[in-house]
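User: Let's play a game. I give you a shape written as tokens, and you guess the letters that built it. Ready? Here's round one.
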């Protein structure tokens, strides 16, 4: 028995040492079988030592983005469900080469311990806008369920800037005003990365090459902020979870200005870095931003077959 266990450990180690190549058409056709073997071996090896018979599982659901769309809020709300086990940190497996090259064994090791009936979820907002990620996720599990949370593209740009601005402030480093990023030679600076992240139709086209809309659920991030319970109910249905999250799990914190969570008598709110006030922007520049996203938004609505209350 000891020899068999040692052999299994060595096989898993070999799987982890084989670097995963960048995704190219047809390059990862054997990956689903590799996933099944890795998951089975990891489960067998950990079975005796895991608390309460739990084990680490590859995620059955991934929150793929978008950055500053409300991914942390969505994950925290989803974690209220007893049948959800969520990875604590952003894993960046599919978009960071130094992680992806370590293989699925490494990815599995980043997952929380969970019971067989629980759904393992991880979230990495950068997945949505990373070109290589859709094919890599599909190669791992073509039946995976994907959650995408989006906000008004203009508001998302401002949140994107605000986060980076405060990161610099905390390090006592100067940072240019948002106008310096948004405007170049009197025109909107379309090379600003935050603008590109808000071109949802461009990134969605890439995901739709590998996944049908049936495998994706788009959460309205603006509605989640205003009235979270109905949006979470939709997520529960999409993930085929029993309806366990209730309206009583949410309460509006007037001091913070957004909803917080109440779980088993314990109240918790998102980190103070969430929900920060955006910088004041000249109304004319804001109108330029809205105009810039008007056509891209229409293309996105056509792609997904629904509309959103965006400018």
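Assistant: Ready! My guess for every position:
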């Amino acid at each position: 028995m000891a020899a068999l266990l040692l052999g299994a450990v060595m096989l898993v180690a070999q799987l982890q040492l084989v670097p995963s190549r960048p995704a190219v058409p047809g390059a990862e056709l054997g990956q689903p079988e590799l996933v099944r073997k890795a998951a089975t071996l990891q489960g067998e090896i950990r079975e005796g030592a895991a608390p309460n018979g739990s084990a680490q599982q590859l995620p059955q659901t991934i929150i793929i983005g978008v950055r500053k769309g409300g991914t942390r809020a969505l994950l925290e709300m989803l974690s209220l469900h007893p049948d959800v086990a969520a990875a604590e940190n952003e894993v960046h497996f599919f978009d960071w080469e130094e992680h992806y090259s370590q293989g699925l064994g490494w990815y599995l090791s980043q997952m929380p311990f969970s019971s067989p009936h629980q759904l393992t979820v991880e979230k990495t907002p950068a997945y949505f806008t990373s070109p290589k990620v859709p094919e890599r996720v599909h190669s791992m599990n073509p039946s995976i369920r994907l959650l995408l949370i989006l906000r008004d593209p203009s508001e998302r740009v401002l949140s994107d800037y605000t986060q980076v601005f405060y990161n610099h402030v905390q390090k006592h480093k100067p940072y240019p005003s948002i106008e310096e990023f948004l405007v170049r030679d009197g025109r909107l600076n379309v090379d600003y990365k935050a603008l590109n992240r808000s071109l949802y139709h461009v990134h969605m086209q890439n995901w739709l090459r590998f996944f049908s809309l049936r495998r994706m659920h788009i959460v309205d991030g603006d509605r989640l902020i205003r009235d979270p319970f109905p949006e979470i109910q939709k997520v529960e249905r999409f993930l085929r979870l029993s309806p366990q999250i209730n309206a009583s799990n949410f309460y509006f914190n007037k001091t913070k200005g957004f909803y917080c969570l109440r779980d088993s008598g314990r109240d918790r709110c998102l980190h103070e870095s969430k929900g920060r006030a955006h910088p004041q922007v000249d109304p004319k520049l804001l109108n330029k931003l809205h105009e810039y996203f008007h056509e891209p938004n229409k293309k996105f609505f056509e792609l997904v077959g629904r509309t959103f209350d965006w400018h």
